[in-house]
Amino acid sequence: QVQLVESGGGLVQPGGSLRLSCAASGRIFSINAMGWYRQAPGKQRELVAANTSGGRINYADSVKGRFTISRDPGKNTVYLQMTSLTPEDTAVYYCNLDVTTLTARYNTWGQGTQVTVSS
Known about the structure:
Blueprint: E1 3-7, E2 10-12, E3 18-25, E4 28-39, E5 46-51, E6 57-59, E7 67-72, E8 77-82, E9 91-101, E10 105-109, E11 113-117
Parallel strand pairs: 2-11
Antiparallel strand pairs: 1-3, 3-8, 4-5, 4-9, 5-6, 7-8, 9-10, 9-11
């Protein structure tokens, strides 16, 4: 089994920055793909940033140039660095990982972390 624990959310003023973390636990052999999604109240969950199994990185147009997805392979941790935040970035942010363990492959979601951008 693989579990994801997210952290780093909180309240930040417009123009501020936050770094979200998503730590994967379990007997992980490799992280094949990773992504960050968000869901604002009354809206559908949307893709924010993804690093696909082919190594291509995609960003939503609304976050290009402001958000950066990255990973620390040694820690099985994925990050989302967010800068120049605006109130429109307010949402619950979820990480999604496609991982391979010694016995199986999993697609797993984190529990979500709230990001609120407000003055």
